[in-house]
Design brief:
Length: 307
């Protein structure tokens, strides 16, 4: 095999009450990555589309390139990889754009080399790529893009990732065309949190995971509450609380900020409800003249795949 093309899905990180420890994959949007074996022991990014010229073409500065560079070093390869990156999602959207690129590229590379490593072994390379993107080797975007489904990061040192069983759930994701930098969204967070709020947040996280395993939609809905992060980040997204309110009024189980924003997600029991929720959220942003894109899909349990 000399060439392969893969799709790596976008992700929703945090899932309201699981800051830096929860994330799930969606069916769309995502990134398409083409990888080719080359004889020179280096990584070349031949082409990037869909980014408006914003992403670095130098492999060592691009998450897709960084994950492959580290992979090739690990296996001590004498061959290299040429990459094409086709961005199919907005940059800086809070949907794990950088994570999708790194996951897709290293997954494709591993297949070209005969599937030498498991997905769990590939996780380390995608996390290091995230460090390049935002200064932190977090896994709440790369893990769900890699494994699919809803993923819990129980611990980071050593990394301990668990895939959580979920009932049938549909995600509505709306991306308003505003800019929220991940660095800014992290810097505004207060590092001193009242114990009472921590206790409530732990209860919501436990309730959400229990609700997923037991297919208890009412418990899932009650648990999709963020006591700590959302109240601080909501100010970065105009009309956030109105958008959230219309989502829940129209049948969503819950609604919150996707990752560091500005995208917002809602979870629903069925596709029709998810689509109605999307229409209502879209109209709410239109009231303040903010253009937006809406994506509706079932939770993606497969993750990155060959296309």
């Amino acid at each position: 095999m000399k060439q392969i093309k893969v799709f790596a899905p976008a992700t929703v990180a945090n899932v309201t009450c699981g800051y830096d420890v929860l994330g799930f994959a969606v069916e769309n949007p995502g990134d398409e990555i083409v990888a080719r074996l080359i004889d020179e022991p280096k990584v070349i990014i031949k082409k990037i589309t869909g980014d408006g010229g914003k992403l670095p073409i130098e492999a060592e500065k691009n998450t897709a390139g960084v994950s492959v560079i580290n992979y090739l070093k690990h296996i001590k390869s004498k061959q290299g990889i040429e990459l094409e990156i086709h961005k199919k999602m907005p940059l800086g959207s809070g949907l794990g754009s950088s994570a999708s690129s790194s996951v897709g590229s290293v997954f494709a590379t591993n297949l070209l080399f005969g599937n030498l490593l498991s997905k769990r072994e590939l996780l380390q390379f995608t996390m290091e790529a995230e460090r390049v993107a935002c200064g932190s080797a977090h896994a709440d975007n790369v893990a769900p893009s890699l494994f699919g489904g809803l993923v819990l990061i129980r611990n980071y040192d050593p990394i301990d990732v668990i895939k959580i069983k979920t009932p049938k759930l549909f995600a509505t994701v709306i991306h308003p065309e505003i800019i929220v930098k991940t660095e800014d969204a992290r810097n505004i967070l207060n590092k001193n949190v009242p114990l009472e709020k921590v206790v409530k947040q732990c209860g919501n996280l436990a309730g959400l995971i229990t609700g997923m395993f037991t297919e208890n939609y009412e418990l899932i809905s009650r648990s999709l509450v963020d006591e700590i992060i959302e109240p601080q980040r909501a100010k970065l997204i105009p009309n956030f609380y109105n958008v959230k309110e219309v989502a829940i009024e129209n049948g969503a189980l819950g609604c919150g900020i996707s990752g560091s924003g500005p995208s917002i997600f809602a979870l629903s029991k069925d596709e029709k409800t998810a689509e109605i929720v999307g229409e209502k959220m879209k109209k709410e942003f239109a009231k303040i003249k903010i253009e937006n894109d809406v994506f509706v899909s079932e939770i993606n349990n497969e993750g990155v795949k060959v296309i």
